[in-house]
Design goal:
CATH class of the largest domain: Alpha Beta
Number of strands: 23
Helix content: 10-25%
Bound molecules: fe (ii) ion
Shape: globular
CATH topology of the largest domain: Purple Acid Phosphatase, chain A, domain 2
Strand order of the largest sheet: 12-13-14-15-19-16-20
Mean pLDDT: 92
Low-confidence stretches: 1-38
Length: about 500
């Protein structure tokens, strides 16, 4: 097939079908054959949606379609149609970044931007190579402030485990608007090779099943923060590290823009590897380590926390964070902090570094902080925290202890009393790593810190978050779809 027309049955493809059954691929098979494509997959990584460098809501929304190939010789065009009907519109020419690093065959990362999307509107898109459609899927534009939102939050995902795939399958079933991973997208060192073995397969299989995962990436934008395992080593150790900055397209409104900054995780000393990484990461390294975005009536600030170089007591970083959280009028404010400021896991009793920013979070009315690192589900009382003494000097190490005084809102129960007086800190680090932390603490309150009200590390799981005006509903769901917990918060 050579023209822009497509099989009309394609337009019957529902977004839910794509998520649940991998129907995009089923519907595509005849297209590819009709197009005379040679057998074989033209993609190293199939198309995936990204919010791109668009921190704030737009009247006319955009979405980035990204994909990866092993050759740059083809002519690629992305076409889309808002509302999933009418004429196909050609996106602008894709931006192409070569990734040429030691030990990995050269490959190319494409980014094409779809524009003119109605907020919350469904769209279809198709990717054409040399005039032939080789991929099609659907997506949903970012929602406006008056539309309800449903998203998945889960940390500590990319190990390639069977549990990761089961969680992905269940997460897709709720048809989320986006997926946020606070950290540990990929184990163990954020390498290109590890994305291939342990990330893309679970979220971009051709068919959805508990065994294979679900093709979320093609229709649901992922957002992510850096965990211990995303940039835990320099290029001196792994030439194909820092893939986070090569493959993702998040907003570029963070405060750390130069490798020379004391707050950046450095690339290392090998000059050849450094040059290759700079070429492949463009303006994303290290800027994209921190960023914020709006989605519907919520504002999300995603922080680089485990990084032992970043000092969240640096006045420049504190100023940026305060300004970011003050500059939004969204009803809901959330922070993604991979390192939990407050957690009860006996595996991490000293992880308190991020308490250094709690005063800012309290001053600016943050509602919930979502964390990972501890492979468990933990919920605190709504709380206020005051450090015992003024915090002077750098706070860089995860184990930097910050003792203080707690005020706990013990009247909040998430059912009949849903107004929270204080910030809820939720650890949701069960997204895929089968090595759960301190499972014996599950439902065992005497092992918890006084600020903890819930703890489950008995099974891999994710958070299903629904936001509707000034009401929020949270469900914690396990890898078999069973409900672990649920509660509500209201304004
Ligand atoms: Fe982890």
């Amino acid at each position: 097939m050579s023209g822009p027309e497509t099989n009309e049955s394609q337009s019957e493809l529902s977004r839910r079908d794509v998520l649940r059954a991998g129907a995009g691929v089923l519907a595509l098979a005849p297209l590819s054959q009709a197009a005379g494509e040679k057998p074989g997959d033209p993609f190293l990584v199939k198309p995936y949606l990204q919010l791109g460098d668009a921190s704030r809501l737009l009247k006319s929304e955009q979405m980035v379609v990204s994909w990866q190939t092993g050759t740059d010789e083809s002519k690629w065009v992305v076409e889309f149609r808002p509302g999933r009907k009418g004429k196909w519109i050609a996106a602008g020419a894709p931006k192409i970044d070569p990734v040429v690093v030691s030990g990995i065959a050269p490959h190319w990362v494409f980014r094409a931007t779809l524009t003119g999307l109605a907020p919350g509107g469904e769209f279809e898109y198709r990717v054409r190579r040399n005039g032939n459609t080789v991929f099609a899927s659907t997506g949903r534009a970012r929602k406006s402030g008056s539309q309800s939102v449903r998203c998945v939050v889960m940390g500590d995902c990319g190990t390639g485990s069977p549990q990761q795939k089961r969680v992905a399958f269940q997460a897709a079933r709720i048809d989320p608007d986006f997926v946020l991973i606070p950290g540990d997208l990929v184990y163990s060192n954020g390498r290109i090779s590890e994305y291939r073995s342990s990330f893309w397969p679970a979220y971009s299989p051709d068919t959805a099943s508990p065994e294979s995962g679900a093709p979320l990436l093609r229709s649901v934008p992922f957002l992510g923060g850096l965990g211990q395992h995303d940039t835990g080593a320099t290029l001196d150790d792994y030439a194909d590290g820092f893939a986070f900055y090569m493959y993702w397209s998040f907003p570029l409104n963070g405060p750390v823009g130069d490798e020379g900054s004391a707050n950046a995780f450095p690339l290392g000393n090998n000059q050849e590897r450094r040059a290759a990484a700079f070429a492949a990461t463009g303006d994303r390294y290290p800027r994209m380590a921190n960023y914020s975005f709006d989605y519907g009536d919520s504002h999300w600030t995603v922080l680089d926390t485990w990084n032992p170089h970043i000092n969240w007591n640096d006045p420049m970083l504190r100023k940026w964070l305060r300004k970011d959280l003050e500059s939004t009028d969204a009803t809901w404010k959330f922070v993604s902090s991979y390192l939990p400021p407050f957690n009860s896991s006996t595996a991490y009793p000293h992880t308190q570094k991020m308490r250094v920013i709690v005063d800012i979070l309290q001053d600016t009315g943050v509602d919930i902080v979502f964390c990972g690192y501890a492979h468990s589900y933990q919920v605190t009382y709504p709380l206020r925290f005051t450090p015992t003494s003024k915090l002077d000097g750098p706070v860089r190490a995860a184990g930097h202890e910050i003792p203080g005084k707690f005020e706990l809102d013990k009247t909040f129960d998430g059912k009949t009393k849903t107004k929270a007086d204080g910030i809820l800190y939720i650890t949701t680090g069960g997204g895929g790593n089968a090595g759960l932390h301190s499972p014996e603490q599950t439902d065992n309150p005497k092992t918890w810190q006084p600020f903890t009200v819930k703890y489950n590390a008995s099974v891999n799981q994710f958070t299903d978050l629904r936001i509707n005006d000034d009401h929020l509903a949270l469900r914690q769901v396990d890898l078999n779809g069973n409900l672990i917990d649920e509660f509500r918060v209201s304004k």
